[in-house]
């Protein structure tokens, strides 16, 4: 019946049975329906051409998802970078437009700066600081998206602003009413080079989210996939560029006013740093590339999900990602899974920062979802940051020094990283840090959170002219946001306590010269190993692997028995001799007192002998918590010990310890026989 037609059909039999079809047909109801289905296939076939708009506004014909991706990458590589000279050139002849906006911005900013100067001159700056901080936050919020973004960036700059200002700026909400659907849909059509009905099966009429730069719609592809379509606000780039241009022009005058009140920093340099950040964020091709890189690095991590980028529906001002169903982490629907989600978030964020050096810099609650299969989904990749290996090492060492209250090492590290001037006097900074920070490892987030740490650190940064580089402020912001999520989900969650095992494991397992040297500096003080530090590092590293001490012990022994660790082995041998000797004395006293009290033997005991000494209690606790805990692989533990003891260096080490303990016991026995007074102090064996 339908033989009266001519059809040329080239089929590609793959996952979606895709093809390109050209048909000349005699119209019948069956053929009309078939042609409609085939027309849909045209839009999804990998060979079908698609028109996209490049970063420069040109229309470009590409074919297929992979080709669209390649074209987008090429356009992203050629994208507009923040260039203050180009801004000057662009706006220099647009006098009316610039002056109107300059009056809107300059008038309230200069009034605010004048009030600060008057407060300082009248001696009421400290008294009015909280009030002025609130005024500043409200002023920033009223000036539009560029200033809101700038205020959020400043909220993680404790080196520039007092704590009161930081606390107020952290209240800024990046939310604006949604703009008109017609404008949004026109933008999508212009950017993607086609009619909406040809690009998508349908788009929901109401946006699901709206922020200062863009808004998000839920859409459906012709092939049925659900997608999230983010479209940029009209003229967003131009509005932001004008505000940055005006701020740069005002920076000289504002600097002079602020110098009167001892605020001596380069405002123009700060504006330029912000300009680079926000230009990255408003380029959706750059965000798509960040999302794909993030998926490549972390998409296969257990319990982590990263949505797919649909490149054929992505441009500089439109980005289309896989739609993800889920709930926010603070939702009651998660029940007991909430704490597990936060742990996944913290561990993944630490891996991002300290292993791969590419991290999501804004993991707030709105950018995270818990999926139905209990995975953690990351969203919105406009704010990412990178760390060099040296910078990652610096963060690791800073956390170790912070947790262990080693302020001398922390100050030396800041000098080495260029955060503090090399000629700065260390003594007052060390004293200020010691006075400002309590024992951070023992406090829960609800009692002593990371924001408190940053606030107290910020007071020191602000008082002693620290200069925080962009990567360090990104880290502070990321950790601060993580802590905020943790508090909402589980007030007792210890974020620094969760971070330290990861850092300890990295310290022990990384064989880089820098971390090896830092580890030695951390473990050794005044030429001797610090027992509390190496046992604490060992047990903390074990927490990364279900409290299995064999894993941390393996890393520690590999470090100790390395060819370049001879000196460390001698120190550890001396320390073990000291500890085992003291433990033997305490155990003998305890047993003697215990037996005497139970009248089994006629023994002379001293008062208190039957009480366990702190050293004995600590040893029993270590054995109970680390070796006898359910799930610890005892066979692995003894296998590791056997492997290292068979090494020549291991055999020599064991001989050193045995000989040292034997010498101590022999000397003590001789003193007891001849009733000699005990030795005044223990001495190290000479080698």
What would you say about this model in short?
With 687 residues, this protein is α+β, with helices and mostly antiparallel strands. It is built from 26 helices and 16 strands.
Write structural notes for this entry.
The longest helix has 32 residues, at 566-597. By secondary structure, the protein is α+β, with helices and mostly antiparallel strands. 57% of the residues lie in helices and 9% in strands. Strands 5, 6, 7, 8 and 10 form a 5-stranded antiparallel sheet that branches. The protein starts with 5 loop residues before the first strand and ends in a 14-residue tail after the last helix.
Task: Give keywords.
687 residues; alpha+beta; 5-stranded antiparallel beta sheet; 3-stranded mixed beta sheet
Secondary-structure map:
Blueprint lengths: L5 E7 L5 E7 L4 H16 L4 E5 L5 E5 H14 L6 H8 L3 H27 L3 H18 L2 H10 L8 H7 L11 H12 L3 H4 L2 E2 L5 E2 L3 E7 L5 E7 L3 H24 L7 H15 L2 H15 L5 E2 L12 E5 L14 H20 L1 E3 L7 E3 L5 E3 L5 E3 L2 H15 L3 H10 L9 H11 L13 H14 L6 H20 L5 H15 L3 H11 E2 L2 E2 L1 H12 L6 H12 L5 H32 L16 H13 L7 H12 L2 H26 L14
Parallel strand pairs: 9-13
Antiparallel strand pairs: 1-2, 3-4, 5-7, 6-7, 7-8, 8-10, 11-14, 12-13, 15-16
Helix pairs in contact: 4-5, 4-10, 5-6, 5-7, 10-11, 13-18, 13-19, 14-15, 14-19, 14-20, 15-16, 16-17, 19-21, 21-22, 22-25, 23-26
* Shape field: globular
Q: Which regions have little confidence, pLDDT < 50, spanning 5+ residues? A: 1-27, 40-50
Roughly how many Å is the radius of gyration?
Answer: 32 Å
Distance between the first and last residues' Cα: 103 Å
Q: Tell me the helix content.
A: 55-70%
Q: List the total number of helices.
A: 26
Beta-sheet strand percentage?
Answer: 5-15%
**Total count of strands:** 16
The secondary structure category is alpha+beta
Mean pLDDT: 78
Largest sheet: 5 strands, antiparallel
């Amino acid at each position: 019946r339908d033989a009266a037609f001519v059809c040329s059909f080239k089929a590609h039999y793959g996952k979606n049975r895709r093809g390109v079809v050209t048909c000349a047909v005699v119209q019948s109801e069956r053929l009309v329906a078939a042609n409609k289905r085939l027309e849909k296939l045209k839009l999804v076939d990998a060979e079908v051409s698609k028109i996209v708009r490049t970063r420069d506004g040109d229309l470009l014909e590409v074919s297929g998802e992979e080709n669209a991706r390649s074209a987008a990458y090429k356009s992203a590589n050629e994208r507009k970078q923040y260039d203050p000279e180009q801004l000057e050139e662009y706006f220099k002849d647009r006098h009316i437009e610039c002056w109107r906006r300059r009056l809107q911005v300059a008038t309230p900013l200069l009034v605010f700066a004048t009030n600060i100067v008057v407060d300082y001159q009248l001696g009421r700056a400290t008294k009015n600081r909280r009030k002025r901080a609130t005024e500043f936050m409200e002023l920033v919020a009223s000036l539009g998206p560029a200033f809101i973004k700038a205020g959020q960036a400043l909220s993680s700059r404790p080196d520039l602003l007092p704590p009161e200002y930081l606390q107020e700026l952290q209240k800024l909400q990046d939310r604006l009413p949604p703009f008109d659907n017609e404008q949004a849909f026109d933008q999508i059509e212009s950017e993607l080079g086609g009619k909406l009905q040809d690009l998508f099966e349908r788009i929901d009429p109401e946006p699901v989210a709206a922020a200062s730069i863009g808004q998000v719609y839920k859409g459906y592809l012709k092939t049925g996939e659900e997608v999230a379509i983010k479209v940029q606000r009209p003229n967003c780039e131009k509005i932001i560029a004008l505000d940055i241009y005006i701020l740069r022009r005002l920076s000289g005058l504002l600097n002079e006013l602020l110098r009167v009140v001892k605020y001596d920093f380069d405002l123009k340099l700060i504006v330029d740093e912000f300009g680079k950040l926000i230009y990255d964020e408003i380029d959706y091709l750059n965000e798509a590339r960040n999302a794909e890189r993030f998926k490549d690095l972390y998409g296969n991590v257990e319990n982590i999900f990263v949505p797919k980028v649909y490149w054929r529906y992505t441009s500089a001002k439109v980005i289309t990602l896989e739609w993800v169903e889920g709930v926010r982490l603070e939702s009651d629907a998660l029940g007991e899974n909430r704490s597990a989600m936060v742990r996944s978030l913290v561990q993944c964020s630490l891996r991002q920062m300290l292993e791969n050096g590419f991290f999501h810099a804004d993991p707030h609650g709105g950018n995270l979802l818990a999926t139905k299969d209990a995975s953690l989904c990351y969203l919105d990749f406009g704010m990412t940051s990178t760390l060099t290996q040296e910078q990652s090492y610096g963060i690791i060492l800073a956390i170790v020094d912070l947790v262990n209250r080693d302020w001398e090492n922390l100050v030396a590290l800041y000098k080495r990283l260029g955060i503090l001037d090399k000629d700065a006097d260390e003594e007052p900074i060390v004293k200020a840090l010691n006075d400002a920070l309590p024992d951070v490892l023992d406090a829960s987030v609800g009692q002593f959170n990371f924001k408190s740490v940053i606030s107290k650190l910020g007071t020191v940064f602000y008082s002693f002219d620290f200069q925080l580089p962009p990567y360090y402020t990104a880290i502070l912001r990321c950790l601060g946001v993580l802590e905020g999520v943790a508090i909402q989900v589980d007030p007792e969650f210890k974020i620094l306590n969760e971070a330290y095992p990861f850092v300890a494991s990295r310290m022990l397992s990384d064989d880089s010269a820098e971390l090896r040297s830092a580890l030695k500096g951390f473990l050794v003080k005044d030429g001797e190993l610090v027992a509390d530090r190496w046992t604490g590092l060992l047990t903390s590293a074990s927490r990364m692997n279900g409290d299995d001490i064999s894993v941390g012990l393996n890393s520690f022994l590999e470090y100790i028995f390395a060819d370049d660790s001879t000196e460390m082995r001698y120190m550890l041998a001396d320390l073990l001799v000291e500890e085992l000797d003291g433990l033997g004395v305490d155990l003998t006293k305890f047993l003697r007192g215990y037996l005497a009290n139970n009248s089994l033997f006629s023994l002379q005991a001293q008062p208190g002998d039957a009480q366990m000494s702190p050293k004995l209690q600590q040893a029993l606790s270590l054995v109970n918590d680390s070796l006898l805990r359910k799930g610890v692989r005892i066979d692995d533990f003894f296998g590791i010990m056997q492997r290292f003891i068979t090494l020549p260096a291991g055999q020599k080490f064991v001989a050193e310890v045995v000989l040292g303990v034997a010498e101590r016991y022999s000397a003590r026995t001789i003193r007891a026989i001849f009733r000699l007074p005990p030795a005044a102090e223990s001495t190290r064996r000479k080698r």
